Request: fold
Amino acid sequence: GMRIVIELKKDANAQVVLNLLYKHTQMQQGSGIIFLALVNGEPKICNLKEMLYHYLEHQKEVVLRRTKYDLERAQERAHILEGLVVALKNIDKVIKIIKSSQDRVDACEKLCSNFTLTEKQAGAILDMKLQRLTSLEVYKIQEELKELNEKIAEYKSIIRSEAKVL
Reply:
């Protein structure tokens, strides 16, 4: 660092010299801040405490929305994987139904009625490639379903708990 010493004459007023130094140099700078924020859709000038409060509320809302979105995606994927697991357990019957069907709609209806599947699950079964019939792929599907169920449980616990949101 650097140290500057200013020596004054006996009759000089130290406070006046200090004020002049502040005025003509960058020894002291100030800047004004206006905390203008949108609160409930309307612009509002806030103090520091209000600004921090509204920021934290916004962050909680962001975390909740993101978690709900992730939860919905995980539930949709788990729903489809559950259908694939059912189909893979009864693969011979599924192939027979698909071969005997006239078109995709007919196959979808027959799969839904025989295995109590939803249209999404039946569509995923019809879109499934034959390479996914190997035992390794079946294991991967079951592992993915297990991981998704753990994620779903975690997302639900975050949504329920204020402490986890914070």
About this structure: The chain has a mean pLDDT of 90. The CA atoms of residues 100 and 107 lie 8 Å apart. The radius of gyration is 33 Å. The chain is about 70% helix and 5% strand.
